[in-house]
Amino acid sequence: MAALIVILVLLVLVAFVLGQTIKIIPQARAGIVERFGKYRTTLNPGLNLVTPFVDRVRYKIDLREQVVSFPPQPVITEDNLVVSIDTVIYFQVTDPVAATYEIANYISAVEQLTMTTLRNIVGGMDLESTLTSREEINGGLSGVLDEATGRWGIRVGRVEIKGIDPPPSIKDSMEKQMRADRDKRAAILTAEGQRQSAILTAEGNKQSAILNAEGDRESTILRAQAERESAILKAQGEGQAITTVFQAIHDGQPDQSLLAYQYLQMMPKIAEGDANKLWVVPSEITKALEGLGSAVHQVAGIPQSTGGVKHRIDMGAEEPETPDTDAARAQANEAVREAIAAAEQSEQGAGGRRSAPSTPAPTDVPATPSPEEPDAT
């Protein structure tokens, strides 16, 4: 039983000795070994052997890059304004021995060094420059801290300004200034927009007036040309109508009987109207009636033939004379005789009511040649 206890004690002692001899260092760590309170060596990551009861791992230094955020610190600017600035520092231990024996607490030392350096940098800048020069402040802090912490075995990689908070009164003034500046820019942009709108509107009105004037001019020109062509065509039509009428008259070879018949047709129109109590028969009608009764007399003022050149116009194919045409001509002659007889009776019946116009007696003139006989002239 005693031997078993001794074996167990020896096993425990061996295990304790092995625990003091074998040291395991994690990755990205460094172990500082002291022998009787004095630095002996630095253990690398992995399995390490030390002298038990003589060597002791005093510190384990983290070799990774570390991030430390410092609380806001009051800083006075050049224009005597107090602002609160909080920073973030990225650093890494490069020499575990120096970080252990050159400085007691390197994190606190870095914080205090950051605050003092920040006060020095911001103290030479006004508030406006402080708010707009973060990169400059970061660069100044990084340079000063890296130089100061190099002998501590620390490398400062980056310094960032998290926030710069001016006093509430300054914030309110800045907001008012910013609002006024934005209102100013808005007013300028509005005025420029109105100016551009007025310019574009004026240009549009100018172009519209020019186009309207050009349209009115072209419309007037086209209207004048249309009226001119219309007048020309109308005059040409009237000329052709007159020529056609005169040609028809010449082709028909009217005699004194036809003209007298036309006079007789005008007599009822002369007597139209209820207010006509007295009407005068033109002397030409009497002469026309005398011409109807005599083939050797001619009505004064009615020529037998017209002079000048006859301009012929194609009137289309003439219709051949038929028995129907002869019958119609005879019927027309009979109507002419009846009209002449009625006119003579009317003239004799109205002898007491009117006086016949004094007209010269008809003179003997050559008779109108018949259509079958050629003109003697």
TrEMBL record:
<protein>
    <submittedName>
        <fullName>Paraslipin</fullName>
    </submittedName>
</protein>
<dbReference type="InterPro" id="IPR050710">
    <property type="entry name" value="Band7/mec-2_domain"/>
</dbReference>
<dbReference type="GO" id="GO:0005886">
    <property type="term" value="C:plasma membrane"/>
</dbReference>
<feature type="region of interest" description="Disordered">
    <location>
        <begin position="316"/>
        <end position="377"/>
    </location>
</feature>
<keyword id="KW-1133">Transmembrane helix</keyword>
<dbReference type="Pfam" id="PF01145">
    <property type="entry name" value="Band_7"/>
</dbReference>
<dbReference type="InterPro" id="IPR036013">
    <property type="entry name" value="Band_7/SPFH_dom_sf"/>
</dbReference>
<feature type="domain" description="Band 7">
    <location>
        <begin position="20"/>
        <end position="178"/>
    </location>
</feature>
<comment type="similarity">
    <text>Belongs to the band 7/mec-2 family.</text>
</comment>
<dbReference type="InterPro" id="IPR001107">
    <property type="entry name" value="Band_7"/>
</dbReference>
<feature type="compositionally biased region" description="Low complexity">
    <location>
        <begin position="330"/>
        <end position="348"/>
    </location>
</feature>
<dbReference type="GO" id="GO:0098552">
    <property type="term" value="C:side of membrane"/>
</dbReference>
<dbReference type="InterPro" id="IPR018080">
    <property type="entry name" value="Band_7/stomatin-like_CS"/>
</dbReference>
<keyword id="KW-0812">Transmembrane</keyword>
<dbReference type="InterPro" id="IPR001972">
    <property type="entry name" value="Stomatin_HflK_fam"/>
</dbReference>
<keyword id="KW-0472">Membrane</keyword>
